Amino acid sequence: MKSVLLIFLDGVGIGKKNPSTNPFFKYPDNFLYEQTGKLPHEGNLRIHKNDTYVFPIDSCMDIEGIPQSGTGQASIFCGINAAKKIGKHFGPFAYSTLIPLIQEKNIFRELKTLNQKTFFANAYPKPFFDYLKSGRKRIGVIAMSYLSAGFRLNTITGVRKGKALSAEITNQKWVERFNYNLPIIKPETAAKRLLQIASSNNFTVFEYFLTDHLGHGRNTEEFENIFFTFDRFMKYLMNHIPEEITMLLCSDHGNIEDLSIKSHTLNPALGMAKGREALRLSSSIKSLYHIKKEIIRILK
Predict the structure, then answer these.
(1) Which residue numbers in the chain have pLDDT < 70?
(2) What is the CATH number of the domain that holds 143?
(3) Sign (positive/negative) of CA torsion 119, 99, 77, 14?
């Protein structure tokens, strides 16, 4: 079965070759270097080695201002220039007039009509579902897209059974914050589970947002733990991808690659592809709104 695994990484761009502000150069032995032998920066935006390609993705989309998550993610998952639709960048949540478009044009809904199996691998804790039951609906674009396509979000049960992942990968935050009775797992264990999930579906998404939090100056006391947890997760994924899976990593805007500021950047978003269709993806995806079309083209 042909399959695409999309790792959505919030707030990661390709920035300057500066170890004092760019953590990818401060900690150079990361998954990007391991796979390609180089690190992308503003003077070298494209890298490839074997079946792995690193490339820039335009997140400004011909609209002035700093790119934001709401319009960026709507562009990725709906294949539209969402910033152009409303005349500005907006976030972190979806702009009100974009919501009907997100519900109608999202990739989960379209792949469902094509009889493709899709899965959003993130699980959500009980307080999130309590929030939804209260009648408030201010949720992220990916969750909104998945729900509007008629699917249910994963709960703690999925995490316990190894059929879903907590957003921070290891379950540690869920144990500490919500006092859940869950095992704290290794990043490699979580990555192995995600690959098993992806092998059973045509299209699988995992969303990681703590990179954006770090870029905004949050969780700074845990910076290295968060950075290396995700790095170990990605290293295992990329070293164990089955032949039938093409992995695409993308972000919605820059942020963490420039820690000298606590806001998003104008840098191109990070793109990375590995597997059978990686060259095609790296060549065809120029802007955020190209991503949906190229994924569907592969799966069709």
Answers:
(1) none
(2) 3.40.720
(3) negative
